[in-house]
Amino acid sequence: MRKVPDQWLSSILLSMYQRPAVTREEIIRSTLLNGGSASQALRYLIDSGTILKIGELKSKAGRRRDVLKLNPEAGYFIAVDLETARIRYALTSLVGDIRFRWEQELDFGQGPDISNLLFGIEMVRRNLEPWQQSRVLAVGIACPGMLEDDRLVTAVNLGWHRFPLLDKLSEVISIPVFLGASCRAYVLAEQGVGSARNTANCVYVELGKGIGAGIVIDRRYLEGNHHMAGEFGHITIDPSSDSQCNCGKRGCLEALASISSIVRRHAKLSGKSPSDRNGAHVSEVFEKARRNDPVALKVLDTVVKAIGLGISHLVLLFNPALVILGGELLLGEDLLLPGIKRELANHLPAFFGPPPEVIVTSLGMDIGLKGCALLAFQNSLASTDSLKKLTTPLTEAIVM
Amino acid sequence: MRKVPDQWLSSILLSMYQRPAVTREEIIRSTLLNGGSASQALRYLIDSGTILKIGELKSKAGRRRDVLKLNPEAGYFIAVDLETARIRYALTSLVGDIRFRWEQELDFGQGPDISNLLFGIEMVRRNLEPWQQSRVLAVGIACPGMLEDDRLVTAVNLGWHRFPLLDKLSEVISIPVFLGASCRAYVLAEQGVGSARNTANCVYVELGKGIGAGIVIDRRYLEGNHHMAGEFGHITIDPSSDSQCNCGKRGCLEALASISSIVRRHAKLSGKSPSDRNGAHVSEVFEKARRNDPVALKVLDTVVKAIGLGISHLVLLFNPALVILGGELLLGEDLLLPGIKRELANHLPAFFGPPPEVIVTSLGMDIGLKGCALLAFQNSLASTDSLKKLTTPLTEAIVM
Prior knowledge:
Distance between the termini of chain A: 19 Å
Largest interface: A-B, 50 and 50 residues
Oligomer: homodimer
Shape of chain A: globular
Radius of gyration of chain A: 23 Å
Low-confidence stretches of chain A: none
Mean pLDDT of chain A: 90
Number of strands of chain A: 16
């Protein structure tokens, strides 16, 4: 059989990820392949079962066009969303549908052992039949904090400083492992299966235990030098503030508006002793604010102002068409979102025109897992070995 | 003669712009063309006189390699740097060497008439011999303020609001006209002939009558939605400030640190009446600070803090390897630069590592003109007509 170039296969597979049903003509339009190349590659992918025919469209002239989709069972990924308080694991289909989950709680300030991670990965992988296990293409992992050159993780909340996570895992896991910063995974999920599918320039802002941003420009993720751009949580919002940040500075956005800073500040202004604060949850502050508690309202006013100012910097510097907010802070969406939008508008000059749309993610808690699966998918398409696995007919055993 | 694809020609010409002398092998490495295509395209460009052989290298094995450069006389550009107080015009060679200059002063707050611009363009164009005039490929114009979709200019200091400059000029000028935001031209010049030639991620910060940033990520200029990213001058640095900005907001970086704000603030703190301030120049404030005048030192302290904080936002969000400063404020480089670097370092978390290099542009007042010439060069390479002009042998008259 004539070999189809990897490049043709990967550009078709990538273009089909965002679309649940697609025709050959739409694939040609979005990949810029010529008709002959596209037909040859599609025939190969359909014959191998990587792409499924799911129907037929009939044009007025009577011509029939196949409707195609990716076969979700052609490959699997293991997604690992490494949060600061827990690790979420999932086994996903080729297109990021979650098939099985597993969670581990973490002690604050302490990163997981490699053996914990391997155990979690095994817990989800074993949910596949043996013949499917050979079709697991890669592990995609979202890391909090700062990820240097896609291998070294620095996360204050995990106690990791330039921890060589990729090397440690690659030593013992036989399939490829890919790391991405959490906010990269989040914005990738929005691009692949969320609200940013049709947006070339967008920003995802994580508002939770940490604060961060994933920035997409011209459909490409902003990497920066050593892949470390987007340290949104640590821009100084208030140079005169005495709010201490985990990073060692004062007045960072994260020190003013993260979940723990809200809980801490509310407790302090309410005159509670440090021991009373343990176990307090941000939702209690939100509840009090909803009942017009003046201390809670004052705390949230600071939060809204800090986040609005921070987002205005992103908007003025990147000019995204869409800003997507996510994270646990959105439990207080009713209390926070109107103020954030108002502050954002106040910090934009009149000549700039109306602010971009600001919305809350629709992907919920699975956003990180979906992003890990897409990260693994994208990276797998660049590998000849993975493409070979992916296009091995389902009826054949894979021997690599 | 076999037609050489435009794409091959333009990628070779583009790769040679940054290099005064280059071998065929280096061209192949930087364009990713295969050897056969590169040889065919180079032969065509050498035969037409677009590229010159300027020497020979001999390898140890005795093989000879031609050393090549762009022929500066193969084409010309007209560069127009539209500042807020004057317009600079230049006739440049193909590689941006300035051959002739012209300047017009502007009244503050009033944009130039189209007829002024046409007059200035004609003043530089007429310095070519008639046979050279047909080789002027394009006009490149750098615009202050905000440029929307590469055609509409909004510049408060010129009194322009969405002024259709491109359409107005294209109606009457027979060669192509290309507009770029000033900071785009500046950072382009740094990439083409300045300090950023070998840097994939860099930021140029203009500190003058206006404040702005040109941002290059992965060797590409950051455009944003409608090509309007990088509104660095109007990020809010101090929400509590009463410093009014031209844009209508308060506390913008430009309101705190532009030249006019320095002059104004110094006059106010010195108790001068508004009429005394006219004609005052920022260099007087710098002179006073050098003689330890406390008012001047206090004013500059605010400036240093505002600029350092602003640049820390750029560094944390984009993570450039290099920050280049330019503009009239650098007349006070000795007074400002150490403080800006100190403030920048203070606003970066320890885990982020050392700050990027911060330097002052080496291109001086010609930076805008050089950038316009490169803007025109890049855009011309995308046009079949311009490539045809450029590759018409110098001995033949061009009839288009």
